[in-house]
Amino acid sequence: MPDLDAARGELEEALGADAVLSDPLALRLYARDASMVEGSAGLVVFPTSTDDVVACVRAAAAHGLDVVPRGSGTGLTGASTPIGDALVVVTSKMNRILQVRTEDRLAWVEPGLFNLDLGLALRGTGFTYMPDPSSQQVSSIGGNVATNAGGPHCLAYGVTSAHVLALDVVLCDGTMARVGSEGPEAAGYDLRGVIVGSEGTVGLVTAACVRLTPEPPAIRTMLMGFAKVEDCAATVSAIIAGGVVPAALEMMDQGIVRAVEAFAHAGYPTDDAAVLLVEVDGIASAVEAEAVEVEEAARTHGVGSIRVAESPEERALLWKGRKSAFGAIAQIAPHYHLHDCVVPRTKLVEVLTGVYAICRREGITVTNVFHAGDGNLHPLLSFDRGDPGVLERVLRSSEEIVRLCVDAGGSLSGEHGIGLEKRDFMPLVFTEDDLAAQACVRSAFDPSGRMNPQKVLPDGARCGDFAVAASATDATGVGDAAAAMPEGTWI
Amino acid sequence: MDLRSKGELRDALRAASERGTRVSIVGGGTHADRGNACEVDVELSTSGLDRVVAYDPAEMLAVVEAGMRVGDLRRILAEGGQEWPADATDAATVGGTIATAPSSPRRLRMGPIRDTVVEIELVTGDGRLVRSGARMVKSVAGFDVHRLATGSLGTLGAIVQVAVKVRPLPKARRVVRTSEGGLLAGRRVLEAVPLPSAVVATPERVEIALEGWPEEIEEQTAAIRRMTGDVEILEDEGVGGSEAVAGTTVVEVAVPPSKLEAVLEGELAWRALMGVGIAWVGLPDAGNRLSALRGRVAEAGGIAPVIRGPGGLGDAPVPALEVHRRLKAAFDPAGILAPGRFWGGL
Predict the structure, then answer these.
(1) Taking the CB of residue A486, how many other CB atoms lie within 10 A of it?
(2) Is the Cβ–Cβ distance between A226 and A275 less than 8 Å?
(3) What is the rounded average pLDDT of the residues A465-476?
(4) What are phi and psi for residue A291, nearest 5 degrees?
(5) Residue B39's CB: how many other CB atoms inside 10 A?
(6) Which residues in chain B touch residue A197, judged by CB atoms under 8 angstroms apart?
(7) What's the total number of domains in chain B?
(8) A283, A346, A413: which to substitute to probe chain B, counting the most B Cβ within 10 Å?
(9) Is residue A68 part of a domain?
């Protein structure tokens, strides 16, 4: 049993009384992230330094608490939802930019720094940090690392993993390690690559060395309206088939466009069935040539309107429309459940049609905004929790959507992760041996099984099932701990 | 031993684990000098596993068996107007290239090989088949075993199948050579020319790889001319990599880009990837000069494995060595896969 009182005493001594919260309101606030999963926090701490984080991990180990790292709490899968009175380590006060070294094309930042604040700080340097999740105004770099976050510009520039050079991590025993390197290669296995996307289950990141990318000299942003969803999707395929990889290729259906337009007033065409936001960047003459190809592809597939951003302000407005989608949907209904699946680009229309059919059958309002270039769908189910029986219908629709995507050859998540919400779907895409190997990776980092347990892997995935000769057979604790999810935790 | 199927490979590794037979997984043998010297009892070749599993240019992904030659993949992708920007030699296998993760000379623009690898099927030391990742350009689903396998020098398992991200072939390409060499000249080019694919500095000249639309290549070439004037232009050529460095011993130095001057001080034969921090350094042997180079690289916080000739990986410290040991024990419980070849004696 965790000894919360002893842990609190030790942490207050190490971090100061102000840095430790245990009142019922705070515990309630930090009992969930932006997903629908509710858990229970034992203590909430706000470290301000690596030493503080080490003290947190040591205190948790000494007093039997699990450790749940948390950035801004914008995660959508329950990955930072504490279960069973865990110690929630909130990184939001570790939000400094430690170094910007354009000569090495890197910056060192603390995990609580907002993604957008790094971008703002880099203005005027000629370099930028490319990953731009739509939540970038409030999501933290640490959280982006934990989920291997994407964003519209990952089509051409790659997801977060491609932009993280090194990480300082505190492991479960309180030891520190710097994985990866400021240089292009590092000694050893690519632990950096495993930690990115591990959803806080293998250690606590206390600093991230991120790669800076030269700003493209020219950018062109185009908004296109289509009377048919199929034509919009066909345009996406035609652009790629023509050998052009735009910086971003984002699709929105009519439902989301109408919600966004009422909110952002970006001038999106509300009468069209779908709109496509395309951005090409690079050297001015190449941008010119690619824009011509993109427009030709769209005209071949029946585009209704093409609007080109004529100024940086207009470009910002067009992007505001896209990036405020999730703020805008509050007009549709008070609650939402946001999906995240990836399917082969060629299956976009088929899967989208299926999503509409599922939600129509269950009587749930669905709107769609997605990274079409990546095949990354984000069906957004809107509802009012007060409606009787609505949660069951939402959950049933969600599961059907997941199965639909997997049946189309897709993956469970493109950029939000697995967390608690999707861990029981993992056997849909992985075999027992695959999952056992993953459990081995996890327990290699965390033999104590104390770092954000119950997340990512489903019940029963144990390293011990995989390699009996391996040393850390019973060390994961994943299966049993997961079985002990408290009543009232709902997904 | 030449294997024709994943099943045969699984059987062979299971048997080797049971008997304690030490095994080296071999692809095209073109990167054999990478890693520390190690003794094995048998070599298992994956080159019989050479099928295309799935390739649809519209998906910008290719799924192939690991023994496929890079040259064969190059031809197949070219028919779809695409390429895998690893730039390994034609005789290398795709699996071997991923297991050894050499740097492309175009790494400035294309990134490291690891960013192209989205899915791997791995046969572990005890013969289990493990798949990790997804056949998608992006996926966050579970722990990324494929990240560990990439660059693991065959010490965690045999890569038997991979899905890699591919990209459109450039519409045009050109190499521009300046007549002035050195790192300072390389740095000036890097600052003056927008978005080159490579800026390779050598003691004699700077070679700049340009690719894309013909008009942007002209624009970039004009920028180079403005700063140096006297240039040589090679149309439709790619830029050379480590093979272009003379020396019986070639080291792949990896340091933060600003440290290149400090580590290359006094060296005579090298090619440095500006903005990346990779430098291939040619040495007459693996003796004192290698030790001295490694000393400077260690001070710069980098690594300096030998990629041609003897000399191994060097003795750079391995972070979280205990984690490495537990990973090795889990994936190769009998310790039969090229024991000692990897960093940290793994």
Answers:
(1) 11
(2) yes
(3) 40
(4) -60, -40
(5) 10
(6) 140, 144
(7) 2
(8) A283
(9) yes
